[in-house]
Amino acid sequence: MAIFSKTCEYAIRAVFYIAHTSNKGHKTGIKDIAAGIDSPELYLAKILQNLSKQGIISSSKGPNGGFYIQESSLTKPLSDIVEAVDGNGLFYGCALGLSQCSEVNPCPLHHQFKSIRDQIHQVLRQTTIGEFNEELINGLFSLKK
Amino acid sequence: MAIFSKTCEYAIRAVFYIAHTSNKGHKTGIKDIAAGIDSPELYLAKILQNLSKQGIISSSKGPNGGFYIQESSLTKPLSDIVEAVDGNGLFYGCALGLSQCSEVNPCPLHHQFKSIRDQIHQVLRQTTIGEFNEELINGLFSLKK
DNA sequence: TTTATAAAGGACAAAAATATCTTTTATTAG
DNA sequence: CTAATAAAAGATATTTTTGTCCTTTATAAA
Ligand code: FES
Ligand code: FES
User: Are A41 and A31 in contact (CB under 8 A)?
Assistant: First the structure.
């Protein structure tokens, strides 16, 4: 088990990739993105369709079309992507799968994991989509397997 | 997405349940455990078979048989259960699914998530199987949905 | 307007996780 | 020894996740 679903991993990596390639109105095709993040092209297409519907990224059809991110969206937090794909279980769900996480009727791990979940949430809320563009351009970070 | 797989959630809850019922050599049957933690009985049976093979819990067949935990095993860390069921991806895997998490070729989220993973690992290593027995007996913690 | 391009959409397929069913084996009580 | 009990083992079923294929729609260039 990983922290995020595979779908969500692809989604975040793809959004980072699109963000750092989409300056001055440049659009990136699915083939390029899939190659850039080492993911199955057709599956990624579905994921990006979803993110596009949710308004996290944008797309245009036809020649010179592709996926891109509005300047204004670069400041959106990563938690938007995670919620869109994996839901908010990671932020609010009980670590042991109880139907609701509550202070009143807590599971044994409640206290320790509440703190961990809060931290995950905070990191994802304070990290933005566009935040790593420079490092990505400079090759300091990897998005490939 | 939750932190642990459903299988692992059942496993941890079941082990807690067994731990707090298994004093003075008492053994607990699968029916009792499944009811006690609100889980599908036959699926849980498979999970406990596995934990038993891995030496985390013990079992005996026949009349008055059932599952129990050796006194000495009460001090085992929860990380043993998690590793047995979900593997160590949560502790060592890359948050964005890169084939290996490395300082040399890190993903953009490496630093922040390394710290989070380490904390999860630490909590699970320092929390023991038997640690909550008293609270469980006193009904301060819940293992049921 | 026609053609080429690229995403959207819907159907389908494969793999993994979750769940159930049936038979076998070990153990204990009578 | 026999019968009853309870876990082990193996087979099968269902659901969810992941991945692919094929057709349609929108757009732009020629
Ligand atoms: S009740 Fe389990 S984490 Fe809060
Ligand atoms: S490389 Fe992604 S978490 Fe370390």
Answer: yes
Q: How far apart are CA A48 and CA A121, in angstroms?
A: 23
Domains of chain B: 6-137 (1.10.10.10)
Per-residue pLDDT of chain A (145 residues; tens, 9 = 90+): 899 999 999 999 999 999 999 888 899 999 999 999 999 999 999 999 999 999 999 999 999 999 999 999 999 999 999 999 999 999 999 999 999 999 999 999 999 999 999 999 999 999 999 999 999 999 999 999 8
Return the amino acid letter for A21: T
B93 C-beta closer than 6 A to ligand 2: no
Ligand 2 within 6 A of CB of B91: no
Phi, psi angle pair for A26, to nearest 5°: -70, 140
Give Cα A39 to chain centroid, integer Å. Answer: 14
Please state the pTM of the whole predicted model: 0.96
- Closest residue on chain A to B16 (Cα): A108
